[in-house]
Amino acid sequence: MDTLKRFFKDTAIYGVTTVLARFVGFVLVPLHTWAMGTVDYSSVTTFFVYAAFFNVLLSYGMETAFFRFFNTQKDKHTVYSTSLISLTTSTILFFIGVWLFKDLIADFIQVDRYYFKILVGITVLDALVVAPFAYLRATNRPIRFAGVKLTNIAVVGFLNLFFLWMIPTFNWNFSFYDKQELLQYVFWANLAASAVTLLLLLPLFFKVKLHFDTRLFKKLLRYGWPILAAGIAFVINENLDKLMLEQMIDKDVMGAYAGCYKIAVFMTIFIQAFRLGAEPFFFSHATSENATANYATILKYFVIAGSLGLLIIVCFIDPLKDFIVRDKSYHKAIDIVPIVLLANLCLGIYHNLSIWYKLTDKTRYGMYISIIGAAITIIFNWVMIPKIGFIASAWATLAAYGGMMIISYQLGKKYYPVPYDLKKIGFYLAFAIGLAALSYLQFRANYWLATTLVLVFLAAAFFIEKRELQLIFKRS
């Protein structure tokens, strides 16, 4: 129980950081949708889709590989040094290669050449800090990790507010300011934040004596390349729907879809916070007593918390919609939100389940599963968008993540059995989905009933888990 208490404590710290990061994103959505129409917002979405792709490409699974070997190798400094040198060298080579052909690549992916230069800058700076951030997490230094992340958040938030709200609102005159090209300031804010982050983490580049272990590098690469393939497939699952909507319908619909998709950000916050605390925990406690029992307990409470989040957002979707996405031209896509929330909850469960192939060094299975998910995403969107419109993309996301979750569970039973309490997990999922459907379809905007439904779910979870919670959080 002390192990679980530590896990929840570390995850809470990472969670606060993630919540604040996403809160700034939450604040920026109404700012962006106020300052820009659906067409311009679609360009912001496209920019960050490619940023996500380059981030996965430039880390090439090395972060997860680092956690794996950092906890199994005696010489931990060599693991960090080898990972750091590898990522730094590959990032520099990437920058040189892409910069030489920047205009050609920008035209090929249909991104404005000027914006593409900023995109390359952001992704290169972010790739350089992958190893230092991983080192902070692996050495249990969540406070410093949080401090750097919060600084990044502050820079992004302030610069967005300064360029998109303060200058226009107070009619400040700056010779460099272009009122007709507001998009660029969204991207420049992220570039500045990435630069500040690199400066803050520079001391960690000299934390250990630099030594490159070729044999270890080959092991890291062998472990990590399937993670790279899985990461690319994940980017497809998460983002291809938006690009396909732009191509198969238009930018207006894509912008509305992307804007409403942001309402599901709360589920994404929860999943990301969990992963930041869980991944190093899972690796470091793999050989401890009752490891699998702890993994099972963690998944159960993850599902409880995720189900509660889904229920709250669906029950109060209309005030959230009006607050986050204030421009009513975006609201035509609001029906995607409950589906996307459930899809992301399935993704979170999948991340829990994926520990089996990471601990058994069978990362290729993660690649296979993600490729299957990507195939579902592509085929479902291609076939169904012409028939039912943008809602097809939400259903495709649910089908992909739900399928990945089921496949991972079935394979995990064979290679790394964990005693998951499927009855309770299934009950909490079904109960939350049923209450959410009742609120959304039959009693929309009845907030007294919505509050009652949320309290009913909370009460049920509390009384079922009361004894176990007391054991986890009791004082030693």
Explain what you see.
The protein has 476 residues and is mostly helical. It has one domain. It is 82% helix and 0% strand. The chain has 20 helices and no strands. α2 runs parallel beside α6, α4 (76-100) runs antiparallel to α6 (113-128) and α12 (265-284) packs antiparallel against α13. 46% of the residues are buried.
Entry summary:
By secondary structure, the chain is mainly alpha-helical. The chain has 20 helices and no strands.
Shape, please? globular
N→C terminal distance = 9 Å
- The ordered string of helix (H) and strand (E) elements is HHHHHHHHHHHHHHHHHHHH
SS-derived structural category:
mainly alpha
Beta percentage is under 5%
* Overall tally of structural domains: 1
Low-pLDDT parts are: none
What's the topology here?
Blueprint: H1 2-35, H2 38-59, H3 62-70, H4 76-100, H5 102-108, H6 113-128, H7 130-138, H8 142-170, H9 183-201, H10 214-248, H11 251-261, H12 265-284, H13 291-315, H14 317-324, H15 336-353, H16 355-359, H17 363-388, H18 391-415, H19 422-441, H20 447-473
Helix pairs in contact: 1-8, 1-12, 2-6, 2-10, 2-11, 3-4, 3-7, 3-10, 4-6, 4-7, 4-10, 6-9, 8-9, 10-11, 10-17, 10-18, 12-13, 12-15, 13-15, 13-19, 13-20, 15-18, 17-18, 19-20
Provide keyphrases for this structure.
20 helices, 476 residues
